[in-house]
Write a structure and sequence with these properties.
The complex is a heterodimer of chains A (about 100) and B (about 80).
Chain A (H helix, E strand, L loop, with lengths): L2 H11 L2 E5 L9 H12 L5 E4 L4 H10 L7 E4 L2 E4 L1 H9 L2 H8 L1
Parallel strand pairs in A: 1-2
Antiparallel strand pairs in A: 1-3, 3-4
Helix pairs in contact in A: 1-3, 2-4
Chain B lengths: L3 H11 L4 E6 L3 E7 L8 H12 L9 E7 L7
Parallel strand pairs in B: 2-3
Antiparallel strand pairs in B: 1-2
The chains are: A alpha+beta (about 100), B alpha+beta (about 80).
């Protein structure tokens, strides 16, 4: 299966899906850590994928959303944004609504 | 090493009419970008426009760029 197909399967199989460096327990980058904190603050149940564990997904996810950085958040298969956007959406209350509706 | 000044110049060269303020340590950067073309665009689209202006530099030289995008109206300009 190609990286793009794997990603499609992951984002459709998890209502809230985070691509990050490291794991929610042990983030390997400050931005990925912040993304996890934001999702936890929303009490979100989320799937996650450690892009450091798979180079093809690490590159593939950048092409998938035409977005060059990690972390990346997907809700219901749709790209929501990276760390900055997640924090802005969290602070405005919008992220909580999106997660509750997912 | 990339300087905040480089990033400012790349963004302003790639986005017509934009003004960027950039801080950073050579690996992690923070930028505030004001651009009239952001009007009517979603936050994702605005960030993608900035990434577009930086092109391949995003893949190689810049590890992380935190950004805030504003229209001149939002910036109170």
């Amino acid at each position: 299966m190609s990286a793009q197909d794997q990603i499609k399967e992951q984002v459709s199989g998890n209502k809230v899906m985070l691509y990050m460096k490291g794991t929610p327990q042990f983030p390997q980058c400050g931005f990925s850590g912040q993304a996890v904190q934001v999702l936890k603050a929303c009490n979100a149940e989320f799937g996650s994928f450690d892009v450091l564990s798979d180079e093809s997904i690490r590159q593939g996810i950048k092409e998938f959303a035409n977005w060059p950085t990690i972390p990346q958040l997907y809700i219901n298969g749709e790209f929501v944004g990276g760390c900055d956007i997640m924090i802005e959406l969290y602070q405005s209350g919008e992220l909580q609504k999106m997660i509750d509706a997912a | 090493m990339v300087s905040p000044e480089d990033i400012k110049n790349w963004i302003e060269a790639g986005l017509a009419g934009s003004t960027a303020t950039v801080d950073g340590d050579g690996h992690h950067f923070e930028a505030v970008i004001i651009c009239p073309d952001f009007a009517g665009k979603s936050m994702i689209q605005q960030h993608q426009m900035v990434y577009g202006a930086l092109g391949d530099k995003m893949k190689a030289e810049i590890h992380a760029l935190s950004m805030k995008t504003l229209t001149p109206e939002q910036a109170g300009a």
